From TrEMBL:
InterPro entries: Bact_solute-bd_prot1, SBP. This is Sugar-binding protein. Transmembrane segments: none annotated. PANTHER family: ARABINOSE-BINDING PROTEIN-RELATED (PTHR43649), BLR3389 PROTEIN (PTHR43649:SF14).
Length: 448
């Protein structure tokens, strides 16, 4: 599961990515929403919570200590206390969806914005935070606008940024490039020439963990953005399934097929994984020249291949395509993670919950994120990044997000689960040549 844990070099940070793509099936989602008929109680009601207590759910990982410190600071000043409930990452998404709409639902909870909470918004389970942000402009302006906007559903804010940013970046192996006397690509023509160059060198041009469909999704996300602009996917995520028929989608699928046919990913990418470090190890060992991956790749390599991370790991942006409509500064990936507030709360508890959510913009909170090797989504974090464990990399990640005209949330989180699951299946079939580009387009138009 792709969570926004920017730099903690832990085995746990890898595990997030594995489960991020394991979205619920439509049947499971429907079952969870049926539970809304059970009703819900506020804190201190029949749900067994202590009176005046706010239950705060967070994805359990190495970054939880930042939220633990925030709860402690909040409780020192608030009459209504917050209780942090770390939920194991393996089961977080399922538990969250199953609990919402029941007396056991959290009062405040961690999520991915977009499609991850859209069903809750439809069922009126979340507090619309738009009036809060409009009233407290300083709070709203504390966050990078493109990141804050990804907490919107139906043009209203339901999420507040609370962890680090994770854009998808093009990483490259400096040693492999040096041996081939090559430079990182700046154009699509450069990419195609590098494919030929590294094939001649006996090196796979791009590491790709083809057993994990979400790694292939990154290629589709960036190609569609660069070819058609961010507007194409914005139409898709708004519910217009016919937008899959946009010419840019077909061009994207054709480009994927061309890359596969050229051998850009090698001959055995379908059997390479990410969760067991298959693709990252091939990349670090010089068996592959480049790797399109979320910014967590840096911390992953720090953990498992520290010498490579220190001396051999380079990074750059995804290049533009000829005649592409997308701005080359656009970014795809995980903007961050968000706090959302349960609408079941009574007035006093709701006010306290909103005050807790606001602590995500506090200086102490931002400082804790940086010291935990994360890159905050706040608009004034740049000066604090000098204390980041990897200040150069953190600065580049921050600039990438800050200067992005559009920051598109990973599609498998931006779309509802009942659409995300078949989308990932179809993308994997496209890469495996089980669907032609035209068949891919038709298959996606049929997804509702």
């Amino acid at each position: 599961m792709r969570t926004a844990v920017q730099g903690s070099a832990t085995a746990g940070s890898k595990g997030f990515r594995r489960h991020r793509a394991a979205t619920l099936t439509a049947t499971a989602l429907a079952a969870s929403l049926v539970l809304t008929a059970c009703g819900s109680g506020g804190p201190g009601d029949e749900d067994g919570k202590a009176g005046g207590e706010l239950e705060v759910w967070v994805y359990q990982d190495a970054s939880t200590k930042v939220q633990e410190a925030a709860v402690k600071r909040f409780n020192e000043k608030s009459d209504i206390k917050a209780k942090l409930v770390p939920v194991p990452g393996e089961s977080y998404q399922d538990k969250m969806r199953s609990a919402m709409g029941t007396p056991n639902a959290p009062d405040i909870f961690f999520n991915w914005g977009g499609g991850s909470i859209s069903n809750f918004v439809e069922e009126d389970m979340l507090v619309d935070l738009t009036p809060v942000l409009e009233k407290d402009t300083a709070f709203k302006e504390s966050f990078i606008p493109a990141i804050l906007d990804e907490g919107k559903v139906n043009d209203k804010y339901y999420g507040v940024p609370m962890r680090g940013m994770q854009p998808v970046m093009l990483f490259y192996n400096k040693d492999v490039f040096e041996k081939a006397d090559a430079q990182p690509p700046k154009t699509w023509d450069d990419v195609l020439k590098l494919v030929d160059t590294f094939k001649e060198e006996g090196v796979t041009p791009f590491a790709l963990a083809g057993t994990d469909a979400w790694t292939e999704l990154m290629w589709v996300e960036y190609l569609l953005d660069r070819i058609g602009g961010a507007e194409v996917f914005n139409k898709i995520r708004s519910g217009d399934s016919e937008a899959w028929g946009d010419p840019a989608v077909l061009k994207t699928a054709e480009t994927i097929r061309d890359l596969v046919d050229r051998g850009a990913f090698g001959k055995n990418f379908q059997s390479v994984n990410y969760t067991s470090d298959g693709a990252p190890t091939l990349f670090a060992k010089g068996k592959a020249a480049m790797h399109l991956m979320g910014s967590w790749e840096y911390s992953n390599q720090q953990s498992n291949q520290p010498e490579f991370a220190e001396n051999g790991l380079g990074w750059t942006t995804f290049p533009p395509l000829p005649d592409g409509k997308g701005d080359p500064k656009n970014v795809v990936g995980n903007p961050t993670n968000y706090w959302s507030v349960n609408s079941k709360l009574k007035d006093e508890q709701r006010e306290a919950a909103i005050e807790f959510v606001k602590t995500a913009a506090d200086e102490a909170y931002v400082t804790d994120l940086v010291e935990n090797a994360e890159v905050p989504a706040t608009s004034d974090a740049q000066d604090k990044l000098a204390k980041h464990p990897a200040p150069e990399f953190a600065g580049d990640v921050y600039d990438l997000a800050l200067n992005a005209p559009s920051y598109t949330l990973s599609w498998d989180q931006a779309l509802p689960a009942q659409q995300a699951t078949p989308m990932l299946t179809n993308i994997q079939k496209l890469f495996n040549k089980q669907l032609s580009p035209e068949e891919f387009v038709e298959a996606m138009k049929a997804v509702k």
